[in-house]
Amino acid sequence: MLHHVELWVPDLARAEATFGWIFTELGWTEHQRWSAGVSWKLGETYVVAERSPAMTGPHDRMKAGLNHLALHAGTREDVDRLTRESEAHGWKLMFADRHPHAGGPDHYAAFLENEDGFEIELVAT
User: Which of 35, 69, 117, 118 falls between 20 and 30 A from 22, CA-CA?
Assistant: First the structure.
């Protein structure tokens, strides 16, 4: 079981607006908060967004490292609702020409990207 993921972000307020919205919508709750970060938890797993002074550059999902987080998002209707609402919360739909089957014909999901280049995949169960 995954323990946690830590994301270093260039702008904590933007990360809170985007990740905080999606995690809350998916049933995660705020877990910890400090001056440079915040985390959200579901079960025993948590995700941290932190503005670290040791960060040396912007996130690039196309380079080695984290490409995206894939999250269970409920039903197809839930994925559709979150996709419709996501733009108002700082997310942009990726692969719109293949949505909601960008992951393949048997895979129903929304691939979203925020302004800092972080990608979230919302997967229908």
Answer: 35
